[in-house]
Every structure is written in C-alpha cells, then in structure tokens.
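Lab notebook page, bench 4
Experiment: in silico fold of construct C2
Operator: M.H.
Input chain length: 261 residues
Purpose: comparison with the prior construct
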Amino acid sequence: MDQGKEGVMVAKLMPNQNPIEQVQARFKELENGFKSWLSKQSLPVEAAVVTATSAAQGAAIGALMGTLTNDVSSSIPTPPPQASLNPQAMASLKQAQALTGGPFVQARNFAVMTGVNAGISCVMKRLRGKDDVQSSMVAAFGSGAMFSLVSGVGGQNQAANAVTSGLFFALIQGGLFKLGQKFSQPPAEDVHYARTRSMLYNLGLQNYEKNFKKGLLTDSTLPLLTDSALRDVRIPPGPRLLILDHIYRDPELKERRGNCS
C-alpha cells in the first residue's frame, strides 16, 4: 500500500514530457546555435554556407518534383539529330524540356535557383544591414539569370535570355515582397514592436515576442537592452545572448546604443 502511494507521488513529481516537443525543442536549439555560429563568420564563409545549404534543400525539392512529373517529360518528343527545326520551335522544345525534366534536371534547376537566391540575399543583407525589396529583387535577378544559363531556357542568345529571365524573376519577387508586406502589416497597437518583431523572427525567437510586450520593451528600448532587462521578462540565457549579439552587430542600433551611453 505504501509502495503504491510512493509510486503515485513520484509520478506526480515527474513532469510529463512529450517526446515530439523534446525533439522540436532540441531541433530549435541546434538551429539557433547554428545561426549564432554563422552570424559570427566572415562574409565569404556565411555566403558559402547559406548558398550550399539552400542549394541542397532546393535540389531535394526539385528531385521530388521531377519524380512526380517524370511522366510528363517522357511524353515530350525528342527530334532526331538530323531533323531541321526552326530556331523558335527548338527554343520552345528546350524550354519545355527544362521545365518538365526528370529528377536530375529539376534538382539541378531548383538547386541553382534557391542557392543563388539565398547566397545573394545573404551578401546583400550583410552589406546593407537590412532585408528590403531592393535586396530581394537583386537576389531574384541573379537567381533567374543563373537558371536561364543552366537550363538553356529561351534560345541561343544566352546573355540576352539571362537578363530577360533575371528581370522577370526580379519583378515577380518584388511584387510578392510588396504583397507580403501589405498583408503582414502589424496591428495599429503593435507598431511600436515592428523592429522587435522583425529581429525576433530573423533569430527564430518569435515565441518571445509576448515577453517583450509584457515588459514594455518596445523598439525604442532596443539600444538600451541589457542581460538583466531580458532576464526580468523571463527570456532564457541562450536567446538573451542571441538578442544582445544581434543588437551589438546591427550598425544602427549600435550607433544609437553608443549615443545613449
């Protein structure tokens, strides 16, 4: 009887831990650690790592899509070598093959598009200190141009086709960026947390936005943040280090921090 009571007491004292939540927490911890390590690297190293990881992700997505659309690509006729097609027909055939190729072709195309886009975005953000529509369009232009050169879409004039594809990608990306900004505007009562929200999102710490609001840590207080202030709103040590490191590395916030001190 006593042993049964002790077992019940031990069960009550032990916290109920969901294995899925443990895995998610561990993955988030590794992700934050990787982002922290990456932000401390030189620009070439950061750009190379971001490009490689994004290209690998794009290749996996492209391979999957290529597998699903393999039947479509196999139905496109391939003309014999001696066949004489006019340039316009040949360009259309190459474009169809590039857009509906098998797993390898699509993996290559998506790897180039996502890798180049992410790499240029990384460089632009590091150089300009912000992620805006101009940086997004420049990255999309490079992505479109490289996709055109690698896939052969458009025809024989590769330089002109690369520029045209780059401009098309840039316009689409710019429109999507503006559209996303329009629909993601914060509520009127949250305008004082716009920069805070952006910082937390970039660091993968968006779950702590409520902590900032609870402590009234608005955008104007970002240059003044200290470890003790973040501790007061119950933000754990790891996220506190990432937040303070981000503020230290941000040129504008660093300048305002110096003026305040």
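Observations: The radius of gyration is 25 Å. Confidence is low (pLDDT under 50) at residues 10-14.
Next step: discuss at group meeting.
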